[in-house]
Design brief:
This protein is α/β, with parallel strands linked by helices and 433 residues long. The protein has 14 helices and 23 strands. Bound molecules: shikimate-3-phosphate. The site of shikimate-3-phosphate has 12 residues, from α3 and α6.
């Protein structure tokens, strides 16, 4: 388990950074590529462990996937009914997206499979996918009646349902839509608020008829589709660490080319802009059905803001790094209605409250969020990542403002989503005059 210390940059961050490929889109490209007929070339895919685990699972289901150069994959799809029974358990590692989406696919196959993951994933709620999938006819067993993985799935003939999800979750919605591809009839998922719509966009891009009406999405099952080249943009959730780092380290200017701008993900840009950040969006275009742009961020003095319910789904993965932005901003930032953060890779409300307190930030935790009083100096501390990639990267960015070293116990977890993060951050510091 490797550790990392970061301390006051004393230098601006300057230069260009190519961030990891989008993790959400990579999972979907692998899964839909496997279910398509024929080849899907995936360029710019995320090399993070989460996606590599989905890649291994797809291979274990009998699908050939070739690595082409460093950044491209070729998936030889087998069609909706071409997957084969895996001879061993399918390990999704740390990835909630991998496990939940695959549960939807496997529920409708004609074989038995078991999905599991690491300790963190085995403690995350799975009833949110197992229960609605069961209403389609799925047979899913698991610990605590399927609330926790491992999940044992006996594939069944599924029937489309009309499901109203109590939570805005792209993982729940996508599990249902993927099961819906295999089901008889139409599957409709309605969410309380829109979550990221990568699954819907990729299906449409691949020629599948998906109907969207407000927050309701429907798909009709059993229609074959054909693979197509897919280009994966840089992950806005990975870019977020540099957006905040450059904002809070004086005199910085960083260029981030080719970043995904899915409107259900751009809460970080709205929040940082409301805080006074200087972020320019350039060359907005649509690539493989997803909006993509180049970003330039320059340092700015930030001030506290309120982040409430309507911003939560589109900012969901960015709260750890937004806590660091809030700690560097003047005044108070109040985060509310964000209780979903308690069931991520770790309880991110608790983790950020404990770790930012250690570095001298006044921070109060409540059930659904945090109140952070910013503007004080950050002091060095012995911090924990809780094995959560986003907590680790957020604390590393906090270190760039600290008066002595912030030491983070476990930074191997950064590999989950962003191999190379450390070198890319250090490169921006060495580019400085
Ligand atoms: C994801 C959906 C979100 C997000 C996760 C990726 C996806 O989870 O937090 O990192 O790719 O569908 P929820 O659907 O549980 O909100």
């Amino acid at each position: 388990m490797s550790a990392w210390s970061t301390t006051a940059a004393l230098k601006p961050l300057r230069g260009t950074v190519h961030v990891a490929g989008d993790k959400s889109i990579t999972h979907r490209a692998l899964i839909l590529g496997a279910l398509a007929n024929g080849e899907t070339t995936v360029s710019g895919y995320c090399l993070g462990e989460d996606c590599l685990n989905t890649l291994r699972v797809v291979r274990a289901l009998g699908v050939q996937v070739e690595e082409v150069g460093d950044t491209n994959l070729k998936v030889f799809g087998k069609g909706l009914w071409g997957l084969t029974e895996p001879s061993t358990v399918l390990d999704c590692g740390n990835s909630g997206t991998g496990l939940r989406l695959l549960a939807g696919v496997l529920a409708g196959q004609d074989f038995f499979s078991v999905l599991t993951g690491d300790t963190s994933l085995r403690n995350r709620p799975m009833g949110r996918v197992a229960n609605p999938l069961r209403t389609m006819g799925a047979s899913i067993a698991g610990r605590m009646a399927g609330e926790y993985a491992p999940l044992a799935i006996s594939g069944q003939r599924l029937t489309g349902v009309d499901y109203h999800s109590p939570v805005a979750s792209a993982q729940v919605k996508s599990a249902m839509l993927l099961a819906g591809l295999l089901a008889e009839g139409t599957t409709c998922v309605t969410e309380p608020m829109q979550s990221r719509d990568h699954t819907e966009r990729m299906l449409q891009y691949l020629g599948v008829d998906v109907e969207v009406e407000g927050t309701a999405v429907s798909v009709t099952g059993r229609g074959a589709f054909t693979g197509k080249p897919l280009s994966v943009p840089g992950d806005l959730s990975a870019a977020a660490f540099f957006l905040v780092a450059a904002s809070i380290v004086p005199d910085s200017e960083v260029f981030l080319p080719n970043i995904g701008m899915n409107p259900a993900r751009t809460g970080i840009l709205e929040v940082l802009t409301n805080m006074g950040a200087d972020i320019q969006i350039m060359n907005l275009q649509v690539v493989s059905g997803e909006p993509v742009a180049d970003l330039v961020v320059k340092s700015a003095s930030l001030h506290g803001v309120e982040i409430g319910a309507e911003l939560v789904p589109k900012t969901i993965d960015e709260f750890p790094i937004l806590c660091v932005a809030a700690a560097a901003a003047t005044g108070e930032t109040r985060i509310t209605d964000a209780q979903e953060l308690r069931v991520k890779e770790t309880d991110r409300i608790r983790a950020m409250a404990i770790e930012l307190s250690k570095i001298g930030i006044p921070i109060e935790e409540n059930q659904g969020g945090l109140n952070i009083t910013g503007g004080l100096s950050f002091r060095g501390a012995e911090c924990r990542s809780y094995g959560d990639h986003r907590v680790a990267m957020s604390l590393a960015v906090a270190g760039l403002r600290a008066d002595s070293a912030i030491h983070i116990d476990d930074t191997d977890c950064i590999e989950t989503s962003f191999p190379g993060f450390k070198d890319k951050l250090l490169d921006l510091l060495t580019n400085s005059p």
